[in-house]
Each structure stands twice: as structure tokens, then as C-alpha cells.
């Protein structure tokens, strides 16, 4: 009888300790899953082929995308998903482009930027005649390079030049595959 009583007395504390440990583990696990906790890295969102996607840069691009979108395509979550997919896609394809030696020459870029299907067409079309003014576009790009304003240059690069280069590289890559 005394053995059973001793097991009851000591077993209660052991059982209490096991339950307390399980509760603490459950709380810590839930906290880490939601991005909180002591051991999480809040500056790194992900990594593709060893190349990190940093939160600061992602948020900056998301803000730029929101400004361009101006509430047209929907919620912030949709824009975040779209931007995430675009970032992963670009990082994966950038690796393939470099392996294949694909690049865009300055001449190719100029032909696209100032040609008939220019992404600058909307900004540099004469409202009276509806004609694209390629020379005005060339002068504006040249002026932006001479301007030395980092925000303006960054805006031109992120809005027109980088997407154009990406599009040209994607077309070249797809033509090689098909």
C-alpha cells in the first residue's frame, strides 16, 4: 500500500511537469510558426538558388508596384503574391540566362525603347497627331542620365529599362526552348 501511495504522490508531480513542458513547447511552436519568437530572421523572406530575397527590398518594390497600380488590380495581398512570383521567376531565369550567355546589347535595348512598340509610347506620343516622338524619348533618357538624381534614375530604370530588358531576355529564352 505504501508503494502505491508513494507513486501517487511522486507521480502527480511528474505528470504535472510533463504537462507543463508540453504546454510550453506548444506555445513556443505556435509563436515561431507565426513569424514571432526569438529565433526568426525578419530581414530574409526567402532564398532562391542561394540568392536571398530581403524584406526591405521586397517592401520597396511592393510600394512602387502599389503606386503604379493605384488600386486597379485589387488587394495588397494579390500584389504581394504577384510580386513574389515575379521575384522568384526572375531569380530562376536570371541563372538560366547567365548559363546560356543570354544578354541584351545596348543597341537592342535602344531599338525596343525607341522603336514602334516602345514602352515609352504613352508618355511621348503627340496628342495632336498620335505619332510617337522617339527623339523626345531619347532626349528625356539622356537628360535623366545627366541629371544625376538617384531617385529619378532609379524610377526610370525600374519602370522602363529593367522590365524591357527582362522582356527581351524572356523572349530570347522562350524562342530557344520552343
What does this structure look like?
With 178 residues, the chain is mainly alpha-helical. 69% of the residues lie in helices and 5% in strands. It has helices at residues 2-33, 55-69, 76-100, 106-114, 134-147, 150-177; strands at residues 44-48, 51-54. A two-stranded antiparallel sheet has the order 1-2. Strand 1 and strand 2 form a beta hairpin. Helix 2 packs across helix 3 (76-100). The termini are far apart.
Q: Quick gist of this model?
A:
The protein has 178 residues and is mainly alpha-helical. It is 69% helix and 5% strand. The chain contains six helices and two strands.
What's the number of extended β-strand segments?
2
N-C termini distance? 83 Å
Q: Helices and strands: which structural class? A: mainly alpha
Instruction: Tell me the strand order in the biggest sheet.
Output: 1-2
* Helical segment count: 6
Query: Helical amount among residues, as a percent range?
Result: 55-70%
The major beta sheet can be summarized as: 2 strands, antiparallel
Strand content: 5-15%
Shape: elongated
Topology record:
Elements: H1 2-33, E1 44-48, E2 51-54, H2 55-69, H3 76-100, H4 106-114, H5 134-147, H6 150-177
Antiparallel strand pairs: 1-2
Give the tags.
178 residues; two-stranded antiparallel ribbon; mainly alpha
